[in-house]
Amino acid sequence: MDPLDSSESRLVESANAAENTESSLPWARFSSWLECVCVVTFDLELGQAIELVYPHDVKLTEKEKTSICYLSFPDSYSGCLGDTQFSFRLRQSVGRRGSWFGEEDAYSRDAPVTLQRELAHFYGYVYFRQVKDAAVKRGYFQKSLVLVSRLPYVHLFQSLLQIIAPEYFEKLEPCLEAVCNEIDQWQSPVPGLTLNLPVMGVVMQVRIPSKNDKPGGSPEKQAQKENLLPAPMMLPTIHELDLFKCFQSFLIHLQMLWELMLLGEPVVIMAPSPTVSSETVLALVSSIAPLRYCCDYRPYFTIHDTEFKEYTTRTQAPPNVILGVTNPFFIKTFQSWPHIIRLGELKMSGDLPKQVKVKKLAKLKTLDTKPGIYTAHKMFLQKDKSLIKRLLKGIQRKRPSEVQSAILRRHLLELTQSFIIPLERYLASLMPLQRSVTPWKTPPQIRPFSQEEFMGTLEHAGPQLTSVLKGDWVGLYRKFFRSPNFDGWYRLRHREMTQKLECLHLEVVCDADLLGWTKDKSEVEIVDLVLKLREKLMKAGKQQLPVKEGVLEKLEGYLQTVISSLPEDLQTVLHRY
Amino acid sequence: MTLRELKVCLLGDTGVGKSSIVWRFVEDNFDPNINPTIGASFMTKTVQYQNELHKFLIWDTAGQERFRALAPMYYRGSAAAIIVYDITKEDSFQTLKNWVKELRQHGPPNIVVAIAGNKCDLSDAREVSEKDAKDYADSIHAIFVETSAKNAININEVFIEISQRIPVLDAGGGAAGNGFKLRRRPSETRTRTCC
């Protein structure tokens, strides 16, 4: 039997099996995109209340419901007349039954780290409408349509809301029922694929990014060429925000904010509206991509949040989180925080958006705090003046916002990569040599990460190779090592390396003469081999290890041969396992 | 060859067989116990018509009254509407007339209308005469066929007639529904649902 052949057919079969179970579960396809859709309304007696949840049988805890209610409405201080869109993120209740997506599913294996499905949080994407309505006692119609999801696809879901929310407010529940059923016909998100997502008479076309995409490349452009007419609604991205728009009032301080994000420093964004608050937080979190921001972040945070007490206690140092708020009450609460960014309505000075200033924290005490970055952070790296010049010139020449955003994104990507490449290179050197992986021993250990050893590599292979920025890179690394972002990055890489080692080990075991080895061995040793090998195979299947094609099948074959060389009574015992 | 995407919606009373017609056209299959559609379902199928490929983007709407208000989203921008009635149910023919009225008032100006009298395999129980339906269709310049999704009668024909009535593309490319030159993708003739 050709091992390649068999593996191929097996793959096809398992893919089919997966699809079958997927489509047989009620709402299975829907829940690969959304947890549920909620309608939050203002009840004169109850305050914010959930009016409707779809699908009806979705399980949200009371705590989650309360949080969704509060987070779906703008704070009373922000006017927000008309339609407003924003996003939030909330912690799932403890003890909630985990979703059926394991950490090892195909999506998380192939999606970029920054687009992983959340396991302990939900995102809420909100479309809030507030209009004068004489028929309502309070004089206003106030309602939010909220998409709750584990996926950070902010652009896709906000675009979806733009299509469905105005229709929903007119046509009510049947509309929601129709939308949810249409989403339940969508193909589940698969990294690397361009999907057509039909909803309410239009077809949205999106590409799900893959971990293997070239950073900074734009595969979307190619997809556009194949595009058909009449054009479906093309979304250029599922998750990227208009960075330029988000950062326009603090472009000259971008470098500082990048450092704060990289280091996972506690930051509060005080914004004039939930829209500005949530977009700024999400844009900042994405500014260190392809690194994953591993701390908690709340694009929109209110005093009603269940974590409010936890995050504002004065008995401990502020937590490593970034919070977006709109309520001025928070100025007092966050007085002890090291970095507070106060944004106002955007002001222009001539052609250019007025840039906020860096101010001393002591200035924060006033009741009416002026826009500014209140921090004592000393920048490790120098500002990139040429970037700022380029962007400001772009504004004067009326360069489109998307182009400005692309320049910004490119710059941030290169900066993060300059920082991370020396770390990646050093980490790769900790991997044992391939020839030290032998079939008769457990796989060799990855050498431990030594900060000092790493610092030693910087002189010859530091960020100066790819970045012109001068400054205290060493100091930046030292501080980074103490941040949750380093921890998250290191754990992930370590797990990948361990899996790689396991793959290499499986491959050398596969090439070894197992049967020959068993010839002069005792039964106990052979049984031990069978059990160990079986465990390895099970683990490889469960973790979906990227083993070379055919290796697992071949090993399974060896295993059967070895078992059948044993006495019959032992064979039955081993088969029963 | 030029590929054109044509949005088509199916309208009509509940239970007349809209989904069965689409299912027969796209999958060449029939399920007597098909579930009622909720909202709408979406399927595509590409067929060759003369020197063009017509990709039908089919929005199969729910016939139930509570979804009635959603219909404009599906016929908005449609090149054609297939309005279906059940030849064994007089009521469903009356509903059809209401759909025609609604399309006249709110539908796209040049929408091609096709009338399908479905379940023609059940002629023993017929309540709507073929002649009456045909006369009505002629009076509004609509395509008319009696169909049976169950026995695969006249299903492809409806779509072929729609293709025939779609305005030919302006050679200069000035027509509203611009075509798109296709490069080396002739194998795509049948796709189901999204992607």
UniProtKB/TrEMBL annotation, chain A:
Pfam families the UniProt entry points to: Avl9
UniProt protein name: Protein DENND6B isoform X1
Family from the record: Belongs to the DENND6 family.
Annotated UDENN domain residues: 35-502
CC annotations in GO: recycling endosome
Source taxon at top rank: Eukaryota
UniProt GO MF annotations: guanyl-nucleotide exchange factor activity
Native species: Salmo salar
Automatic annotation (TrEMBL), chain B:
MF term (GO), any: GTP binding
Keyword Ion transport: no
Keywords (A to Z) from UniProt: Cytoplasmic vesicle, Endosome, GTP-binding, Lipoprotein, Membrane, Nucleotide-binding, Prenylation
Membrane disposition: Lipid-anchor
One CC-aspect GO term: early endosome
Location(s) in or outside the cell: Cytoplasmic vesicle, Phagosome membrane; Early endosome
Chief location: membrane
Protein name, as recorded: Ras-related protein Rab-22A
Record organism: Salvelinus namaycush
Underlying gene: rab22a
